[in-house]
């Protein structure tokens, strides 16, 4: 009593503040009091209570769940005239005294879930619910382990009841778990059956005339008579994880048959029959739904394969479709009213590389979930025709970039790319996302991707930093450096400095390497040109002169190549010995070269038109540019025009030591015969004779 007074004082003191702790009733009791929108909520959940404390009379919501109450006293809540919600779930109640709820005339919501109450007049005295004239929601589920039917004369007092959660069991095929007392509940629309073991037949819902929502979570269906669900106007039908007894596969077919004659708005067939490895015959199901007006359809977790044709028959009325966690490999929908589509956890990766999932060219789609589909690329036009799209979930795939078109999605608010393989986004993707940033506050989730921190991605990282308000979660990204160390991006600035430094040395390196390569190339080219300079010049002049005059003839027997200092020797001795005595024709530049023609051309022509070339080698010959030119050209001529036959003949007019000869000449001297000019009368005769023989 004193405690109650103290409590009331506490409420006067603290009642108006947002949160006030109520002083302990016993030493270990600490209920929480919260005032929320003019509701006073007292929460004594999970405090190991077995005795009811006394509460102030203005409590609106009382949560006593997860305690140890085994029995309630008569008129326990007598003074709580304002109580609207009472939660006694998860206690050990096994009996309710007749006047347990006396005085709770405003109570709307009573939860007795998970106690030890039996469905009989022992646990639920006939008049126990009589005071609850305002009750709209009752939960008595997870109680009866042995007794099957809830005593309907007890429930018949709750004439305002709108929803009930209850256990239901029938043993005979012609029985109903909901007896005549339920006929009084003219507002009861929502039925949730837990611990469901039922025969379904025309009696089952006979006394529940106004039902529009049936939740059969994990129901064990013993038998099902055609027509049980047929002809009803349902807003909601939950067939999650049905189980069937005995004959496998017939019951689902019967239920589906009835669905074609039922108008339901929401149909939940999550994991339907999967527990027993019964596969939903999807084509059959969809044909049954084709003409219904179902708007929300869950067909997730059914392990089902769907042919393209059957998907096309899904009702056009659909607005919300969940096909997640099946094994779909292809999908083409044409539902113009569809707003929400969950395709998470299928195998659409291959299909979506090439095709769109949507056939109709414009839809109202606002959210598409494609997470977990092994997608590494998407067809570019994948989201075309979805101008209202707000959410795209592509998480847990293997994407490396955004290769699909987003530019038209002006309403996009969320792009989830988390847990993919994106190391950076390409400039193209950045450009198209920038377009969206201009029009909408798009958030992008890139977490659980390992971003690349290197010079190549510097632009991408800069862009990310500039738009960090568009990325969620902010600054919670990992970055991989070129040395393979992975760092958290806590501070973009810090990272940038590092990368910028790295990039500078990178740039310097690139420039150095380029210069080195250029230098090497130049040296090589110069070397090659030098090495083949004579060949190149020879070919050049040959092509040039060939172009002009295409005749090749042995017009001369020999071309004499000499330096100016040996002019007298050539003009006098050579002409005399060759032309006058030997009857040979010589080509001598002073006499035979065409005036006006380029010297180099004249030389090449002369060598080309002579059978042999005789070089009068002296020191001035070796020093003279044109003499050496003639020598080299003759060498080339023998290689390229005379099939390697030697046409060169050296006459040493002076004594020259081998050291003084250039390498190319030394080679020839060693390989071929040469002749020295003897400078005495006797020898000269032999010399000329030999020379004549050589050029014959
Ligand atoms: C009471 O607190 C528990 C957690 O201790 C919470 O789960 C429950 O929702 C609360 N009840 C109400 C009515 O707020
Ligand atoms: C509760 O009250 C009823 C009659 O009002 C009485 O029959 C019953 O024995 C009482 N139960 C307890 C536990 O006091
Ligand atoms: C008790 O029931 C009320 C209403 O049914 C609910 O809001 C509350 O969360 C429940 N408490 C617990 C712990 O389940
Ligand atoms: C249900 O069938 C049993 C026999 O199987 C019969 O004894 C019983 O009277 C029937 N009940 C109703 C309500 O038809
Ligand atoms: C649909 O339900 C109505 C009313 O129960 C019934 O008369 C009709 O035969 C049913 N049609 C089909 C195709 O089941
Ligand atoms: C889509 O389906 C997955 C898998 O069933 C589920 O986890 C996810 O919550 C669903 N998404 C939405 C938005 O309902
Ligand atoms: C596609 O759009 C065009 C005009 O944008 C329209 O004429 C055509 O009927 C549409 N086709 C479908 C199948 O909706
Ligand atoms: C981003 O994605 C990660 C991983 O999927 C997820 O844990 C996180 O909640 C997401 N963040 C936001 C803000 O949605
Ligand atoms: C790798 O490089 C980053 C940035 O240059 C540097 O911060 C980090 O210490 C390096 N890690 C190792 C193991 O060298």
Automatic annotation (TrEMBL):
<dbReference type="InterPro" id="IPR032675">
    <property type="entry name" value="LRR_dom_sf"/>
</dbReference>
<dbReference type="GO" id="GO:0005886">
    <property type="term" value="C:plasma membrane"/>
</dbReference>
<keyword id="KW-1133">Transmembrane helix</keyword>
<dbReference type="InterPro" id="IPR035897">
    <property type="entry name" value="Toll_tir_struct_dom_sf"/>
</dbReference>
<dbReference type="InterPro" id="IPR000157">
    <property type="entry name" value="TIR_dom"/>
</dbReference>
<keyword id="KW-0472">Membrane</keyword>
<keyword id="KW-0732">Signal</keyword>
<dbReference type="GO" id="GO:0038023">
    <property type="term" value="F:signaling receptor activity"/>
</dbReference>
<keyword id="KW-0812">Transmembrane</keyword>
<dbReference type="GO" id="GO:0007165">
    <property type="term" value="P:signal transduction"/>
</dbReference>
<dbReference type="Pfam" id="PF01582">
    <property type="entry name" value="TIR"/>
</dbReference>
<keyword id="KW-0325">Glycoprotein</keyword>
<feature type="domain" description="TIR">
    <location>
        <begin position="554"/>
        <end position="695"/>
    </location>
</feature>
<comment type="similarity">
    <text>Belongs to the Toll-like receptor family.</text>
</comment>
<keyword id="KW-0675">Receptor</keyword>
<keyword id="KW-0433">Leucine-rich repeat</keyword>
<dbReference type="Pfam" id="PF13855">
    <property type="entry name" value="LRR_8"/>
</dbReference>
<feature type="transmembrane region" description="Helical">
    <location>
        <begin position="507"/>
        <end position="530"/>
    </location>
</feature>
<protein>
    <recommendedName>
        <fullName>TIR domain-containing protein</fullName>
    </recommendedName>
</protein>
<keyword id="KW-0677">Repeat</keyword>
<feature type="signal peptide">
    <location>
        <begin position="1"/>
        <end position="17"/>
    </location>
</feature>
<dbReference type="InterPro" id="IPR001611">
    <property type="entry name" value="Leu-rich_rpt"/>
</dbReference>
<dbReference type="InterPro" id="IPR003591">
    <property type="entry name" value="Leu-rich_rpt_typical-subtyp"/>
</dbReference>
């Amino acid at each position: 009593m004193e405690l109650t007074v103290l409590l009331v004082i506490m409420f006067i003191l603290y009642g108006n503040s947002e949160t006030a702790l109520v002083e302990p009733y016993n030493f270990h009791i600490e209920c929480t009091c919260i005032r929320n929108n003019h509701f006073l909520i007292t929460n004594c959940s999970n405090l190991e209570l077995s005795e009811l404390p006394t509460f102030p009379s203005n409590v609106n919501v009382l949560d006593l769940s997860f305690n140890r109450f085994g029995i309630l006293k008569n008129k326990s809540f007598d003074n709580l005239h304002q109580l609207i919600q009472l939660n006694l779930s998860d206690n050990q109640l096994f009996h309710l005294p007749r006047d347990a709820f006396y005085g709770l005339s405003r109570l709307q919501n009573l939860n007795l879930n998970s106690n030890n109450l039996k469905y009989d007049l022992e646990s639920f005295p006939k008049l126990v619910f009589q005071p609850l004239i305002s009750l709209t929601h009752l939960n008595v589920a997870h109680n009866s382990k042995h007794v099957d039917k809830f005593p309907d004369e007890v429930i018949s007092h709750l004439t305002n009841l709108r929803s009930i959660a209850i256990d239901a069991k029938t043993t005979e095929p012609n029985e109903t778990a909901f007896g005549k007392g339920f006929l009084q509940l003219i507002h009861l629309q929502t039925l949730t059956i837990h611990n469901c073991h039922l025969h379904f037949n025309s009696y089952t819902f006979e006394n529940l005339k106004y039902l529009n929502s049936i939740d059969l979570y994990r129901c064990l269906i013993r038998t099902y008579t055609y027509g049980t669900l047929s002809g009803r106007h349902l807003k909601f039908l939950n067939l999650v994880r049905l189980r069937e007894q005995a004959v496998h596969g017939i019951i689902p077919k019967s239920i589906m048959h009835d669905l074609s004659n039922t108008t339901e708005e929401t149909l939940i067939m999550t994991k339907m029959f999967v527990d027993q490895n019964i596969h939903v015959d999807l084509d059959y199901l969809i044909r049954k739904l084709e003409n219904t007006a179902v708007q929300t359809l869950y067909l997730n977790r059914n392990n089902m394969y769907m042919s393209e044709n059957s998907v096309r028959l899904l009702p056009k009325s659909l607005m919300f479709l969940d096909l997640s966690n099946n094994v779909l490999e292809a999908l083409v929908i044409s539902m113009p009213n569809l707003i929400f589509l969950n395709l998470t956890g299928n195998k659409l990766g291959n299909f979506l590389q090439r095709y769109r999932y949507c056939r109709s060219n414009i839809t109202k789609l606002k959210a598409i979930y494609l997470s977990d589909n092994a997608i590494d690329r998407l067809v570019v036009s994948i989201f075309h025709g979805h101008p209202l799209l707000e959410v795209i979930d592509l998480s847990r795939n293997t994407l490396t970039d955004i290769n699909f078109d987003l530019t038209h999605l002006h309403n996009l608010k969320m792009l989830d790319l988390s847990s993919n393989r994106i190391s950076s986004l390409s400039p193209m993707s950045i450009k198209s996302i920038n377009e969206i940033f201009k029009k909408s506050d798009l958030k992008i989730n890139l977490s659980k991707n390992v971003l690349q921190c290197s010079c190549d991605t510097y632009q991408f990282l800069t862009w990310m930093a500039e738009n960090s308000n568009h990325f969620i979660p902010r600054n919670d990204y990992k970055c991989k450096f070129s040395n393979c160390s992975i760092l958290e991006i806590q501070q973009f600035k810090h990272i940038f400095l590092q990368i910028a430094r790295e990039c500078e040395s990178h740039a310097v390196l690139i420039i150095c390497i380029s210069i080195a390569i250029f230098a090497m190339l130049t040296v090589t080219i110069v070397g090659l040109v030098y090495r083949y300079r004579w060949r190149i010049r020879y070919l050049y002049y040959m092509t040039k002169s060939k172009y002009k005059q295409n005749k090749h003839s042995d017009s001369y027997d020999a071309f004499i190549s000499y330096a100016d200092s040996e002019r007298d020797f050539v003009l006098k001795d050579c002409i005399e010995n060759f032309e006058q005595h030997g009857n040979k024709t010589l080509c001598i530049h002073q006499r035979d070269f065409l005036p006006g023609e380029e010297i180099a051309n004249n030389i090449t022509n002369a060598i080309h038109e002579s059978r042999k070339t005789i070089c009068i080698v002296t020191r001035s010959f070796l020093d003279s540019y044109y003499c050496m030119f003639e020598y080299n050209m003759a060498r080339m001529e023998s290689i390229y025009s005379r099939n390697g036959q030697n046409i060169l003949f050296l006459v040493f007019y002076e004594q020259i030591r081998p050291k003084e000869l250039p390498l190319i000449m030394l080679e020839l001297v060693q390989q071929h015969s040469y002749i020295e000019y003897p400078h005495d009368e006797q020898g000269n005769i032999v010399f000329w004779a030999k020379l004549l023989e050589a050029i014959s």
